[in-house]
Design goal:
CATH class of the largest domain in chain C: Alpha Beta
Helix content of chain A: over 70%
Strand content of chain A: under 5%
Number of helices of chain A: 15
Radius of gyration of chain A: 19 Å
Largest sheet of chain A: 2 strands, antiparallel
Structural class of chain A: mainly alpha
Oligomer: heterotrimer
CATH superfamily of the largest domain in chain C: P-loop containing nucleotide triphosphate hydrolases
Order of helices and strands of chain C: EEEHEEHEHHHEHEHEEHH
Number of strands of chain A: 2
CATH topology of the largest domain in chain C: Rossmann fold
Mean pLDDT of chain A: 89
Structural class of chain C: alpha/beta
Distance between the termini of chain A: 34 Å
Strand order of the largest sheet of chain A: 1-2
Strand content of chain C: 15-25%
Largest sheet of chain C: 6 strands, mixed
Chains: A mainly alpha (319), B mainly alpha (273), C alpha/beta (258)
Strand order of the largest sheet of chain C: 6-7-8-3-9-10
């Protein structure tokens, strides 16, 4: 806990200082880092429902797309300024999560995964049919030529999401979420209103995701259903979180940093098939050899490496 | 076609509690197997290459289960879910690297011809596809209920530890089950090669449908998958008819959600533990 | 049915005509049972008699097919489990359900954070309350360890500690002595007596006869989903119906076993 606490403080300080960087960076680096902040925020948001609460959502990308479309609609059709539009997007995304979560969060395991997956796919198909949203051909937003603006907004969202996670992890609410993950029935008989806590966790997760989606829409100036409802975002949220350590405070950001760095090294700009093959191999590696993510190694150093424990754990998980 | 695509998926899910996202890429590989046999020196008809396609996919799936998925088969569900997802993107992209993303297709002598019954015309290809799907389903059903291996598989699905105690090699049974799932995907791929465009990403559409059909039919319920496939085809057509072609998927997914929420054991199944 | 007079005041907890069916299986077949304030009721019966199901109905984790459950005068039949806990009814699980990746102290603190007085106190006060409970049940030395690292006896004790941390007025205990050594059983019995002296009503489901007979003021026998007898421990051991349906069958087979 001590080492973990220092790590959180250290990362928040580094992130806060990186706000000073943009004037010294070329356009490409500003772009890369903005994207990194965005993916980290998405992973931090996923971690609240998937990592802390134990509900592996494949539908979080829905809130990214919803946030993007809500912002685009508010700015384009209603001529709202960005900040009002973004706030609107956050509210819409959180409300959608609460609405969907009430029935869906009663499902467990595979059924929850499928239900959220089908919401993600269904939402994309549904939005592609709506006239006010430009049907399948998408929407355009006003152009803001100041790309440093998006760097700062995404960074802000990330820092807020980390601080929020740290606050929740130490709060009464955070203990409810973890108790639900560990054993929902036991949580209920200790007085936890599991249904409400789960919905609240998903709504907060959706609010962060919606904020990132709204900012992405303005940044990209153009959105269409396949872009903002892209399931790959959802998968990346999960992989980044698992790589860093699910249910930890800054694990998702660390996982996102590593994956983004690898992606950059392999040339993330051109979506090459080899890039995806390597991503697949990394997932296989994480799932089999790093089920708890990197966090134990970051707080405990190489002492955390224990071949015997790893082998015992593998023995327990296979037949 | 949907039924053929879903039977193997449903089997693996029901028996092993593994959602095989890579099932779609198995179908794709099966389709390519048929394609290469068709354009190769043998010039084998896709319907005749079904057994070969099944054999190839059985071997691939068996190895994948034995050496990769088995490592985390008892870990939380997210692990197998992600693992098969990772395999699926690896296989699809390797296919793209080696075979390019060119759209290929198989045109046989009978591709355009249909059977006319009264005012109805049914393309021969679809008729044959239906017959093969029914035959495979019934064959699998017989295998699962009558053969010794089939019974061992079903026993394992009910209680892993009890099966182990009574001398069943669980790891082998799982690999076999996954292999059979792969073989069925291979057969579905061979069938798909006749009527669908063959590309490295052709499997994606099948996974989503396999999901829906399996849930509609009830998990691991072999004949249920057949019924689910037919029901799904009807729902999709009605969705397109009433709401417009674009809403086809939305309606299908909405039905899936409702089924999960209200009848998670499938339309034809019963609520049993 | 024994002719025990109904208590004059409202019982601490009561079940009335409770029926629970799982598909074709009848787990509880019209159970009526009330427990007075401050009483220790022993609930015994062969495996599959419906004891755990009855506790589940009383704690709200299982909805009855028909019938009603009361806490004091309040009907709690349709009240969700978490709210029943906040009304002062806590339970343990026979198959223990620790929060494996939390420390022992955190496990207990969750009960203190969300139980009957949970919302009235700060997180700091809840952790202090958790420390008190750990002291009482003798788990204080293990407070910092992960729940998954505890021995079987430790996990049973943790079940009790979590339930106690919710400040219950009624505590439902489901075989918390299973698998313990005689010495550990004595310790647990002492603990339960002291909990009861503090005013907590107990329903104790147990297979360990020595413990049940030693601790209970009244014993009820559940057999095939029905209460077939209730009365003082001495009367129950002498009841021919009980001997035939339960003790006889068990003792004929040999040593009692959980």
């Amino acid at each position: 806990m001590q080492a973990g606490g220092r790590l959180v403080v250290g990362i928040v300080i580094v992130l806060a200082l990186s706000a000073l960087l943009p004037p010294h960076l070329n356009g490409n680096w500003v772009h890369v880092l903005t994207l990194f902040f965005m993916m980290s925020s998405l992973a931090q948001a996923w971690n609240l429902i998937g990592g802390f609460t134990g509900y592996a959502s494949f539908g979080n990308v829905t809130f990214f797309g919803t946030g993007a479309y809500a912002c685009a609609y508010a700015m384009d059709a209603m001529r709202w300024p960005f900040w009002t539009a973004a706030l609107f997007a956050v509210v819409v995304a959180a409300a959608l999560a609460a609405l969907l979560g009430w029935p869906i969060l009663r499902l467990r395991g595979h059924y929850f995964a499928i239900a959220t997956l089908s919401i993600a796919v269904g939402m994309q198909a549904l939005v592609a049919q709506q006239e006010p949203f430009g049907k399948g051909s998408g929407m355009t937003l006003p152009i803001n030529p100041n790309f440093h603006f998006f760097y700062w907004v995404m960074l802000g969202i990330l820092i807020v999401s980390i601080l929020l996670t740290a606050f929740i992890a130490r709060s009464r609410f955070g203990y409810a979420l973890v108790a639900i993950r560990e054993n929902e029935e036991a949580a209920a008989v200790l007085g936890i209103n599991a249904a409400r806590a789960k919905v609240a966790a998903w709504a907060i997760s959706a609010a962060i995701t919606g904020a990132a989606g709204a900012t992405f829409a303005y940044w990209n100036t153009f959105i269409d259903p396949p872009t903002v409802f892209d399931l790959n975002y959802n998968v990346l949220m999960i992989i980044m979180t698992l790589l860093g350590g699910a249910g930890t405070i800054v694990g998702p950001t660390i996982g996102s940093f590593i994956l983004s760095a690898i992606g950059e090294y392999l040339g993330a700009q051109s979506i090459s098939p080899w890039h995806t093959v390597v991503l697949g191999a990394i997932i296989v590696f994480i799932v089999i050899l790093l089920p708890r993510g990197l966090m134990p190694y970051l707080t405990g150093g190489l002492r955390a490496f224990n071949l015997g424990a790893l082998r015992a754990q593998l023995r327990a998980s296979r037949v | 076609m949907y039924a053929a695509a879903a039977v193997g998926f449903s089997l693996v899910w029901g028996i092993m509690n593994v959602i095989n996202i890579a099932h779609g890429t198995f179908i794709m590989l099966g389709a390519y197997t048929s394609y290469w046999l068709f354009v190769g020196p043998l010039h084998l008809d896709p319907f005749l290459s079904i057994p070969l396609s099944m054999l190839v996919m059985f071997a691939i799936a068996y190895v994948i289960q034995r050496f990769i998925i088995n490592q985390v088969i008892r870990a939380p569900m997210l692990a197998t879910f992600l693992l098969t997802f990772a395999l699926s993107i690896m296989i699809a992209n390797l296919a793209q690297i080696f075979w390019s993303s060119d759209v290929r297709s198989i045109t046989t002598a009978y591709s355009g011809s249909s059977l006319a019954v009264g005012g109805l015309t049914i393309p021969w290809v679809r008729l044959w596809t239906l017959l093969v799907a029914v035959a495979l389903t019934l064959g699998l059903q017989t295998f699962m209920t009558r053969s010794k291996i089939g019974r061992a598989i079903r026993a394992t699905s009910m209680d892993v530890d009890a099966a182990r105690l009574s001398g069943v090699g669980v790891a082998g049974i799982y690999a076999l089950t996954f292999g059979i799932g792969g073989a069925l995907a291979g057969a579905a791929g061979a069938l798909a090669s006749v009527s669908y465009a063959i590309t490295p990403t052709m499997g994606d559409a099948f996974v989503v449908r396999a999901f829906i059909v399996s849930v509609l039919g009830g998990l691991g319920n072999v004949t249920g998958a057949l019924v689910g496939g037919l029901v799904y085809g009807v729902i999709e057509s009605f969705g397109a008819l009433f709401f417009g072609e674009g809403y086809k998927d939305v309606v299908a997914l909405a039905v899936l959600l409702l089924v999960i929420l209200f009848r998670p054991y499938g339309l034809v199944g019963r609520a049993t533990a | 049915m024994s002719a025990l007079a109904a208590p004059a005041v409202a019982p601490a907890i009561a079940a009335r005509d409770v029926v629970v069916r799982f598909g074709g299986l009848v787990a509880l077949d019209g159970v009526t049972l009330s427990v007075a304030l401050g009483e220790i009721l022993g609930l015994i019966g062969p495996n599959g008699a419906g004891k755990t199901t009855l506790l589940s109905v009383m704690s709200g984790t299982q909805r009855p097919t028909s019938g009603a459950v009361f806490v004091g005068e309040r009907d709690i039949t349709r009240v969700p489990a978490y709210r029943i806990t906040r009304l002062g009814v806590a339970r343990t699980f026979q198959v223990v359900k620790p929060f494996a990746n939390l420390s022992v102290r955190e496990n207990v603190a969750v009960g203190a954070l969300y139980g009957r007085h949970g919302m009235d106190r700060s997180a700091r006060a809840a952790f202090a309350a958790a420390d008190d409970v750990l002291e009482r049940v003798g788990l204080a030395p293990e407070a910092k360890r992960l729940a998954s690292e505890l021995t079987l006896a430790g996990r049973n004790r943790l079940e009790i500690a979590k339930a106690l941390a919710t400040d219950p007025q009624v505590l439902l205990l489901d075989e918390v002595m299973a698998g313990l050594t005689p010495h550990e059983i004595d310790q647990t019995m002492g603990l339960l007596r002291s909990v009861n002296r503090a005013g907590v009503t107990l329903i104790v489901v147990e297979h360990v006869m020595r413990a049940i007979m030693g601790i209970s003021q009244r014993v009820a026998v559940l057999h095939q989903g029905r209460i077939i007898a209730q009365g003082s421990p001495q009367a129950i051991v002498a009841d021919p119906l009980v001997i035939g349906a339960y003790l006889g069958a068990r003792y004929a087979k040999g040593a009692p076993h959980a």
